[in-house]
Amino acid sequence: MNYTRCVKNYKPFTGSFVRFYSDLKTNEIEVPFSNGRILKLSTGKYAKLADGCAVGTLGDTSVMVTAVSRTKPSPGNFTPLIVDYRQKSSAAGRIPTNFLRRELGATEREILISRLIDRSLRPLFPENFNYETQVVCNMLAVDGVNNPDIVSINAASAALALSDIPWNGPVGSVRVGCIDNEYIINPTRREQQTSILNLVVSATKQNLVVMLEANAENMLQPDFLKAIKIGVKESQLIVNSIEKLEKNLGKTKRILEKPLELSNEVKEAIESLTTMRVKEIFKNYAHDKLSRDNEVNCVRADVADKIHVDFPTLDYNLIVDYFSKVTKKVFRNLIFEEERRCDGREFDDLRKISCEVDLYKPLHGSAMFQRGQTQVFCTVTLDSHESALKLDPLTMLTSGIKQKNFFLHYEFPPFATKETGRIGPLGRREMGHGALAEKSLYPTVPHDFPFTIRLTSEVLESNGSSSMASVCGGSLALMDAGVSVSAPAAGVAIGLVSRYNDNDTKHIEQYQLLTDILGIEDYMGDMDFKLAGTKKGITALQADIKLPGLPLKIIMEAVLKATEAKAKILEIMQECIDKPRISKKDNWPVVDKLQVEAHKRSRLIGVGGINLKKLLYETGVQVSQVDDNNFTIFAPSQQAMDEAQEIISKLLNAERAPDLEFGGIYTATIVELRDIGVMVTLYPDMPPALLHNSQLDQRKVSHPSALGVEVGQQMQVKYFGRDPVSGLMRLSRKVLQSAAR
Hints:
There is one protein chain. The protein has five domains: 24-249, Ribosomal Protein S5, domain 2; 264-338, Polyribonucleotide nucleotidyltransferase, RNA-binding domain (Arc Repressor Mutant, subunit A, Orthogonal Bundle); 353-576, Ribosomal Protein S5, domain 2 (2-Layer Sandwich), CATH 3.30.230; 590-653, Ribosomal Protein S8, Chain: A, domain 1 (2-Layer Sandwich), CATH 3.30.1370; 665-740, CATH 2.40.50.140. Helices cover 34% and strands 27% of the residues. It is built from 18 helices and 29 strands. The strands form six sheets. An eight-stranded antiparallel beta sheet has the order 8-7-9-10-21-20-18-19, sandwiched between helices. The chain has a six-stranded mixed beta sheet with strand order 1-2-3-4-6-5. The model is unreliable at 1-25 (pLDDT under 50). InterPro entries: ExoRNase_PH_dom1 (IPR001247), ExoRNase_PH_dom2 (IPR015847), ExoRNase_PH_dom2_sf (IPR036345), KH_dom (IPR004087), KH_dom_type_1 (IPR004088), KH_dom_type_1_sf (IPR036612), NA-bd_OB-fold (IPR012340), PNPase (IPR012162).
């Protein structure tokens, strides 16, 4: 073959290879924020079989989010949305530290971020959307600087917008921090550690707020409201960018199967049988949670049975579902018509509140907080810093927190709502409520407190806002335990009932905010807006909005109403206890500091830490080394501390043990016979050391008694130093016998 002719006739390939490259081409859009940081959203490269896929990148942190929805509806009248956010150690260049060296069950942080994403997406699904949908957030890379949770929300929004899944998005989400009175959009991990605000805002177009989540260092209300406005404004940049991406690359939304509906005749029959009877129940202010629910259930069963007799071919569940719709409509209309709530309260009234502290003597701190039919029992346990909650390595990397010396555990047993059920591992709801209450109280707890604080909140009765009741009860319990909180904290939930047309929540015709909502007002209403803080400012906020976005005006009004209600609750709490307890309880633990000279450290610690271990077993007192010369002593009571200090004093002031010479011969005294050898001492006050059977005699010895040795008998032994691993003395009698022969 002529090589020159081949080169001359060569033509570049422009066929299917180019088309193949075009398929792999990444379609990307950049979102520049006001502070210069850029969020990148791309699609078309990964997971093409999913209904929708998008990759979000902020700095060097990238998260891939996929969205998949079934094509057949599921039974029920709720949105079966599942959000799974999983941290991947490989994305951060780490190997999991568990035994199997792989990712196992979801951590608390993963569950909380999954809830954050869910609450940002769920309100924008169409009404009666009952197609099982799963959103999976898969970490690709984590740089340890930029937090992946905000990236995940925006990538999930882009994935749903680009998919064929019906969804009224997109939504944009940003984090707002505040350092030296300067607001920062999407702060880095280090910036967040010095920020007094951690606010996540999710909003859709036209500045409609979908979700709020925040914790703050007792931030003033005007500054907090300004941060919300800034967050909503910045989120519009993301919404506009995703809309452009959707316009160019989005799939055509699928047409859903039309759900089965009742005929007008049946609907009118249900309404005529239901409206007046249910209205009378909701206007009877003497009802409590149980009696009201029982009455409604009786009406529902009666109406469903009568309709089913007249229309036997109808699906029973359709009848019950429409009854619920009529009941909800009646409940909401009564609020506007009567200008009074179902329990007789005005819109701004609080339920009756009662508080009690110091309930049981063995507890370090305890409190009971009752608000209406919501009751929580809170306890405080004080322990050493060794009991601090250690976080997993990846959570440390992304949050910057290595351990927590204050943490709150929230429990919601089934009897709290007169139900039965399995009591076991916490669900996502319980974990989310506990995390919110913990964030609400954390800014008030001193960071240099000498103990680890575990606060538990068990809900004994529930009729709305148990998480905010946990804040109130938890603050009372902390003060009862003598924790020097900066100020008491309280929380309250604000509800919303509104009227609007055709999902146009930008122009709500009529609305009413409800202070301190009942469980039924949460279920029938449009919002659960929880706010906590001290008399001075705000420490936490969580807004679950059931509408496809709310105007900023309503959000601002809700913050104002919650602040007013919070102040009233704090006044009632202060009648019970107004400041941390000063007089100590007998069962309170105590902590002390100890400085030990360098040449005495070995006397205190002992070989392999034997002295400290013995001290812990005998007295329950824990001694921890802070640095070379300083130690901390934790004792469960003053009596235990006194006993431990007496032992420590003897250890430190004891005569110095003689220095033993390697290869030296010493007289040993037998103090104990064991199966494997004899325990001996070489000098007074020496911890007994083992002389093993194999070193007792030239002959094989199965038990020391075979040699006729007894306790108190003396013998010559040779010292060979200490074992480098265990630190135990190495002694031998056998080598001396060999030398003598």
